[in-house]
Amino acid sequence: MNIEKARFNMIEQQIRPWEVLDQSVLSLLAAVKREEFVPAAYRSMAFMDLCVPLADGGSQGRCMLEPKVEARILQELHVQPQEKVLEIGAGSGYMAALLGRKAQRVLTLEIDAELARMATDNLKCAGIGNVEVRHADGSRGPQADGPFDVIVASGSVATVPQVLLDQLKVGGRLAAIVGTEPIMRAVVVTRVDEHAFRTVEIFDTVAPRLLGFEEPPKFKF
Prior knowledge:
The protein has about 220 residues and is α/β, with parallel strands linked by helices. It has helices at about 5-15, 25-30, 65-75, 95-100, 115-125, 160-165; strands spanning about 50-55, 65, 85-90, 105-110, 130-135, 150-155, 170-180, 185-190, 195-205. Strands 5-4-3-6-7-8-9 form a seven-stranded mixed β-sheet, with helices on one face. Strands 1-2 form a two-stranded antiparallel sheet. Strand 3, helix 4 (about 95-100) and strand 4 form a beta-alpha-beta unit. Helix 1 crosses helix 3 (about 65-75). The longest helix is centred in the N-terminal third of the chain and has 13 residues, at about 5-15.
């Protein structure tokens, strides 16, 4: 496989047609080597328009989201260099790597110990030093590191979890894929003030449920 040709085709044929036109995002997708975050057994799928399985065993059923989904979420969040980011669901570390190249600091929480190790190793190999992978359940409550400018749920949730909204700064943005199969929507929620949030739906998709968020939490705006 011609890797650079496959990367170019991914960007031009999958991602750009999905209204990802921010050149900083497109350049980042060219620079961060997606194939290095894909398990060796599935490396031929690194640039395909589909979810890529992660390791078997304890990580069974986990996957990397489609490249176009990750790229569109990254674009819609408008992450700034001075911002602090929380990711729920590190997976292989790829989304954290993209976020790390835009933000000042990224904390990514992974409930699966095997995936937490994978993400840590992948990020180290990629030379990304401003991302911390923590083996933890993001549904369990606020992190001492918060509040955060940006929060990304790298998987689906039944509803936007209040436990994550509570960790957003005023002006902060949260991206999540919300709903139940076969209908889910990616949304960006902005904290307008201490008590108010604004939600924008950005596209329809389907994604595996985040571990720890299987049951709809109590939730209110």
